[in-house]
UniProtKB/TrEMBL annotation:
Catalytic activity: IMP + H2O = 5-formamido-1-(5-phospho-D-ribosyl)imidazole-4-carboxamide
Annotated keywords: Hydrolase, Purine biosynthesis
EC id: 3.5.4.10
Domain Inosine monophosphate cyclohydrolase-like: 2-201
Pathway(s) served: Purine metabolism; IMP biosynthesis via de novo pathway; IMP from 5-formamido-1-(5-phospho-D-ribosyl)imidazole-4-carboxamide: step 1/1
Protein name, as recorded: IMP cyclohydrolase
Gene expressing this chain: purO
SUPFAM superfamilies: Archaeal IMP cyclohydrolase PurO
The family this protein is said to belong to: Belongs to the archaeal IMP cyclohydrolase family.
Amino acid sequence: MYLGRFLILGKTEEGNPFVTYRVSSRSFPNRVSKEMDENTIAIIPKDLEEIFKNTYITYNCVKIVNDEKNDMDTIVATNGSQTDIIADKIKLGLPIRDALSLSMIGMDYEKDDYNTPRISVVLNKEEAYMAYVAKDDIRIKKVDLEEGNAYYLSVYEACKITSHQKIAVDLKTAEEISKNIMEHEYFENPVTCATVMITENGIEKSLL
Ligand SMILES: NC(=O)c1ncn([C@@H]2O[C@H](COP(=O)(O)O)[C@@H](O)[C@H]2O)c1NC=O
């Protein structure tokens, strides 16, 4: 099934929260995820001229906001340039719900041939939120993560936040999760993916 881009948000059986962003693409498959700095992961076309063919295919898909005062990292993961807007608002001190609401309604769905929705996730050791904005729908939802389970949210076919979109997770590391999601036969047109996990020893990342 072609879900397009999707996010997976969950907790390992050991209780480590994580998010995975997977790029699936029919139109622009020649892209990679790249760590730009310690707190930023970007999706970039291999041929940089493609950047000018479509404004929606190049963006930071992950930003980590460090709150040193409260010793907390907050991870923002999305399918577009809303990543930076959401992260900036969280950095300014807005509650996550407000940062997501303002950014998602401000950026809106993509004005492409498919009216592609924007999907976003925000996660730290205390709370987790999922959000989407489509042409005829918008939702921001705080979700309770359970050990050994994850929610998924995609641009096509599964653009919903519901307990029906839940999968079991029996993998331990960010690397195992990225590998499984890239190689999963059910998810068509794999291009690249990035997993970011919060562990007792800090942030663990895996880019494929
Ligand atoms: N975020 C992305 O990586 C991304 N890749 C493609 N799109 C948009 O979705 C349209 C359909 O792309 P595709 O045929 O690869 O599913 C593209 O024309 C583009 O407007 C994207 N925008 C949203 O998902």
